[in-house]
TrEMBL record:
This is RNA-directed DNA polymerase, eukaryota, reverse transcriptase zinc-binding domain protein. It comes from Tanacetum cinerariifolium.
Amino acid sequence: MEYLKGVVLAKASSSAGWKEMLKLRDKARKHILWKVRDDMSINVWYDNWCPISPICDIVTTREIYEAGLNINTTMNELVNKYEGTWPEGWSNEYLILNQSDILRTHDGTRDKAIWLDMKGKENMFSVRQ
Protein backbone atom coordinates (compact mmCIF):
# COMPACT_ATOMS: atom_id res chain seq x y z
CA MET A 1 0.00 0.00 0.00
CA GLU A 2 2.97 2.34 0.31
CA TYR A 3 2.83 3.07 -3.42
CA LEU A 4 -0.63 4.59 -2.94
CA LYS A 5 0.75 7.28 -0.67
CA GLY A 6 1.84 9.56 -3.50
CA VAL A 7 5.52 9.77 -2.65
CA VAL A 8 6.77 7.44 -5.39
CA LEU A 9 7.45 9.18 -8.68
CA ALA A 10 7.86 7.60 -12.09
CA LYS A 11 11.41 7.79 -13.39
CA ALA A 12 12.12 8.43 -17.05
CA SER A 13 13.34 4.82 -17.27
CA SER A 14 10.16 3.39 -15.68
CA SER A 15 8.06 1.04 -17.76
CA ALA A 16 4.89 2.33 -19.39
CA GLY A 17 2.87 -0.03 -17.19
CA TRP A 18 4.40 1.36 -13.99
CA LYS A 19 3.76 4.94 -15.12
CA GLU A 20 0.10 4.11 -15.80
CA MET A 21 -0.27 2.45 -12.39
CA LEU A 22 1.08 5.56 -10.69
CA LYS A 23 -1.42 7.70 -12.61
CA LEU A 24 -4.24 5.55 -11.22
CA ARG A 25 -3.09 5.77 -7.60
CA ASP A 26 -5.31 8.75 -6.68
CA LYS A 27 -8.37 6.95 -8.03
CA ALA A 28 -7.49 3.75 -6.17
CA ARG A 29 -6.64 5.59 -2.93
CA LYS A 30 -10.18 7.01 -2.77
CA HIS A 31 -11.55 3.48 -2.60
CA ILE A 32 -9.50 2.40 0.43
CA LEU A 33 -10.97 3.52 3.74
CA TRP A 34 -8.92 2.94 6.88
CA LYS A 35 -10.68 1.91 10.06
CA VAL A 36 -8.64 3.40 12.90
CA ARG A 37 -7.92 0.97 15.71
CA ASP A 38 -4.37 1.12 17.09
CA ASP A 39 -3.09 4.14 15.06
CA MET A 40 0.12 2.30 14.19
CA SER A 41 -0.14 1.73 10.44
CA ILE A 42 -2.22 4.66 9.20
CA ASN A 43 -0.37 7.49 7.47
CA VAL A 44 -1.98 10.74 8.63
CA TRP A 45 -1.59 12.52 5.30
CA TYR A 46 -2.08 9.98 2.52
CA ASP A 47 -4.34 7.27 3.93
CA ASN A 48 -8.08 7.79 3.63
CA TRP A 49 -9.06 7.51 7.30
CA CYS A 50 -10.78 10.87 7.61
CA PRO A 51 -14.44 11.04 6.50
CA ILE A 52 -13.70 14.19 4.50
CA SER A 53 -10.75 13.15 2.31
CA PRO A 54 -7.10 12.27 2.72
CA ILE A 55 -5.51 15.09 4.71
CA CYS A 56 -2.90 15.63 1.95
CA ASP A 57 -5.77 17.14 -0.07
CA ILE A 58 -6.21 19.80 2.63
CA VAL A 59 -2.81 20.54 4.23
CA THR A 60 0.30 21.36 2.19
CA THR A 61 3.58 19.49 2.52
CA ARG A 62 5.24 22.71 3.66
CA GLU A 63 2.79 23.07 6.56
CA ILE A 64 3.37 19.46 7.53
CA TYR A 65 7.12 20.07 7.86
CA GLU A 66 6.63 23.43 9.59
CA ALA A 67 4.62 21.60 12.27
CA GLY A 68 7.62 19.35 12.95
CA LEU A 69 6.05 16.39 11.20
CA ASN A 70 6.86 14.63 7.93
CA ILE A 71 5.02 12.85 5.14
CA ASN A 72 5.53 9.47 6.83
CA THR A 73 3.88 10.48 10.13
CA THR A 74 1.52 7.84 11.50
CA MET A 75 -1.66 8.54 13.42
CA ASN A 76 0.07 7.27 16.56
CA GLU A 77 2.92 9.78 16.16
CA LEU A 78 0.51 12.69 15.62
CA VAL A 79 -1.64 11.76 18.61
CA ASN A 80 1.43 11.45 20.84
CA LYS A 81 3.11 14.66 19.65
CA TYR A 82 0.01 16.86 19.77
CA GLU A 83 -1.92 15.02 22.49
CA GLY A 84 -4.89 14.23 20.28
CA THR A 85 -5.27 17.65 18.66
CA TRP A 86 -4.17 19.18 15.38
CA PRO A 87 -1.03 21.35 15.26
CA GLU A 88 -1.60 24.91 16.47
CA GLY A 89 -3.58 27.05 14.06
CA TRP A 90 -4.70 24.22 11.79
CA SER A 91 -8.17 23.95 13.33
CA ASN A 92 -8.76 27.65 12.62
CA GLU A 93 -7.19 27.66 9.16
CA TYR A 94 -8.76 24.39 8.04
CA LEU A 95 -12.20 24.35 9.65
CA ILE A 96 -13.00 21.08 7.94
CA LEU A 97 -10.43 19.35 10.18
CA ASN A 98 -12.67 20.06 13.16
CA GLN A 99 -15.08 17.47 11.76
CA SER A 100 -12.48 14.78 12.28
CA ASP A 101 -11.66 13.63 15.79
CA ILE A 102 -8.13 12.24 15.84
CA LEU A 103 -8.52 10.82 19.33
CA ARG A 104 -9.24 7.14 18.99
CA THR A 105 -9.97 4.35 21.38
CA HIS A 106 -7.43 1.58 21.25
CA ASP A 107 -9.33 -1.67 21.21
CA GLY A 108 -6.24 -3.84 20.80
CA THR A 109 -6.81 -4.63 17.14
CA ARG A 110 -4.79 -3.44 14.17
CA ASP A 111 -5.85 -0.69 11.80
CA LYS A 112 -7.83 -2.14 8.92
CA ALA A 113 -8.11 -1.17 5.25
CA ILE A 114 -11.61 -1.53 3.78
CA TRP A 115 -12.45 -1.38 0.06
CA LEU A 116 -15.19 1.09 -0.93
CA ASP A 117 -17.21 0.33 -4.03
CA MET A 118 -18.24 2.93 -6.62
CA LYS A 119 -21.19 3.97 -4.42
CA GLY A 120 -18.93 4.50 -1.39
CA LYS A 121 -20.20 1.43 0.44
CA GLU A 122 -17.87 -0.96 2.24
CA ASN A 123 -17.34 -4.06 0.17
CA MET A 124 -15.09 -7.03 -0.39
CA PHE A 125 -12.46 -6.28 -3.02
CA SER A 126 -13.00 -8.00 -6.34
CA VAL A 127 -11.83 -7.45 -9.89
CA ARG A 128 -15.33 -8.36 -11.10
CA GLN A 129 -18.04 -5.74 -11.54
